[in-house]
């Protein structure tokens, strides 16, 4: 194992096999995180009943993970650059496994909340290393295929969480009830730890960097001030201090930018590598990723509420309804980066935005046409159309954002990419209070609940379609073709290191 950047394109057959094993390991870890973000929602009734958790504690069980995860992503990415991506990945997956065990063995709601915070923090160490390891391990001409696989994993994880949570809770394995949704991570985590230590090749920034502790404090404070009121605002009645906190977060993040500029000029070891924003593909892609996160944050939450509360479906029925969507995302993601993007470039992503918007509008029409009698098979067509659109976006977008990023900053770039996605999701969750719950009355009779939730769902879909239109326009700022598809023609001779562009 080496401690500096490797050149994967010169690797022999044995090394080639090792890096594909390494890819499978880090992709499994990414899938585990994606599932854990959504799996808890399905099990909330069981946690309330068996653990005696209050409504406020339930909010912290879900929000604690998101807060710790989002606040730690940039720091986790930078730690990988400094101390080695393999090392930090193994620490992250090991800590994530321990935290999962503590969640499953929690003796009271307070212990479960604390364990979820720890789990989110460990995920913040683990997840940024996934894209960093891919970026450092695979040459430019192969990354399209790899990011296609990553997109498929994202699509699968987005829907598998609720389905897996429904199955585990309903099966009640060994009488564990909700605990099984956390304990299932143990064998996966242990296997990832053992195999990762053997097959992942170490990589880090080629020059010595130091951890920017002031930057860590500022970025953590700024993100918490922004995300905490968004996550908890509706339950607390949108208090004044929440708006003050969100406004103050902009001041803190502005202070972070000013400090990071001075830090970069002084010793070249900032937490946030501001030079990344001079990379055209990265700067434009970050904007698209943030707005895309908003759309997904709105849709997935209101979709779950619509099926389980509006239509009265069981968790298992709702989870199975999402299978066509998951399959469509996975298939389209693989095709987009391997066959379509090399030929059509940016137009594939823009087509994805329009296709996804068309699927949303079709879903809106079907919901109104069939009313509360709509069946899962009738939802299949709009979900497949939406899944195809999402698949055309999610894998090529990651590819496009990171295509021109220098390898020594891949950890920082990956952390920023994941952070803005989480921020977008949090903004989307905040908007749900306006576009969904804002249309539902406070006191509904039992016979009013279904129609009210269905109307709120359709109102939300209109907003999601509008956001997809904004994403289509923002995509004009992306490069016409990701850099590696140009490099790929020469990669077999001399793979080029991506360079900064103005």
TrEMBL record:
The chain crosses the membrane at residues 20-44, 56-76, 88-107, 113-134, 146-168, 180-201, 213-231, 243-260, 281-306, 318-336, 348-365, 377-402, 423-440, 460-478. Pfam families: MFS_1. It comes from Streptomyces caelestis. This is EmrB/QacA subfamily drug resistance transporter. Its main location: membrane. Residues 22-481 form the Major facilitator superfamily (MFS) profile domain. GO terms for molecular function: transmembrane transporter activity. NCBIfam families: efflux_EmrB. Keywords: Antibiotic resistance, Cell membrane, Membrane, Transmembrane, Transmembrane helix, Transport. It is found in: Cell membrane. One of its GO terms (biological process) is response to antibiotic. One of its GO terms (cellular component) is plasma membrane.
């Amino acid at each position: 194992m080496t401690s500096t950047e490797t050149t994967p394109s010169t690797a022999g057959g044995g090394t080639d096999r090792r890096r594909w094993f390494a890819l499978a390991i880090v992709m499994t870890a990414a899938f585990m995180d994606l599932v854990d973000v959504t799996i808890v929602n399905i099990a909330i009734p069981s946690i309330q009943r068996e653990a005696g958790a209050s409504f406020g504690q339930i909010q912290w069980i879900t929000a604690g993970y998101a807060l710790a995860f989002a606040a730690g992503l940039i720091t986790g990415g930078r730690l990988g650059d400094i101390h080695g991506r393999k090392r930090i990945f193994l620490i992250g997956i090991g800590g994530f496994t321990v935290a999962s065990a503590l969640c499953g063995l929690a003796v009271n709601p307070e212990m479960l909340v604390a364990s979820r915070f720890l789990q989110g923090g460990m995920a913040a160490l683990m997840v940024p290393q996934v894209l960093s390891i891919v970026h450092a391990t695979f040459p430019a001409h192969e990354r399209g295929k790899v990011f296609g696989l990553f997109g498929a994993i994202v699509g699968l994880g987005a829907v598998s969480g609720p389905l897996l949570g429904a199955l585990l809770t309903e099966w009640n394995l060994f009488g564990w009830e909700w605990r099984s949704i956390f304990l299932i991570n143990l064998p996966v985590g242990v296997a990832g730890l053992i195999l990762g230590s053997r097959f992942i090749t170490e990589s880090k920034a080629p020059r010595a960097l130091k951890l920017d502790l002031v930057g860590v404090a500022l970025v953590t404070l700024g993100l918490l001030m922004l995300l905490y009121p968004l996550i908890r605002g509706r339950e607390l009645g949108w208090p004044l201090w929440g708006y003050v906190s969100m406004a103050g977060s902009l001041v803190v993040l502005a202070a972070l930018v000013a400090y990071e500029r001075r830090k970069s000029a002084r010793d070249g070891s900032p937490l946030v590598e501001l030079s990344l924003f001079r990379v055209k593909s990265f700067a434009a892609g970050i904007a698209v990723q943030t707005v895309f996160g908003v759309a997904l944050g709105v849709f997935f939450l209101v979709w779950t509420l619509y099926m389980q509360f509006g239509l009265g479906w069981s968790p298992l029925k709702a989870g199975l309804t999402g299978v066509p969507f998951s399959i469509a995302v996975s298939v389209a993601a693989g095709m987009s980066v391997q066959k379509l993007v090399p030929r059509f470039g940016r137009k594939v992503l823009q087509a994805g935005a329009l296709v996804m918007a068309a699927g949303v509008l079709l879903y809106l029409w079907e919901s109104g046409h069939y009313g509360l009698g709509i069946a899962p098979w009738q939802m299949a067509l709009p979900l497949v159309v939406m899944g195809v659109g999402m698949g055309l976006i999610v894998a090529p977008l990651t590819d496009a954002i990171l295509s021109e990023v220098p390898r020594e900053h891949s950890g920082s770039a990956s952390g920023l990419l994941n952070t803005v996605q989480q921020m977008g999701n949090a903004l989307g969750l905040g908007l749900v209070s306006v576009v969904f719950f804002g249309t539902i009355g406070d006191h509904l009779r039992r016979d009013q609940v279904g129609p009210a939730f269905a109307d709120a769902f359709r109102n939300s879909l209109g907003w999601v379609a509008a956001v997809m239109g904004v994403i289509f326009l923002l995509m004009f700022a992306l490069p016409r073709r990701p850099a590696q598809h140009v490099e790929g023609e020469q990669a077999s001779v001399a793979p080029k290191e991506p360079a900064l562009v103005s």
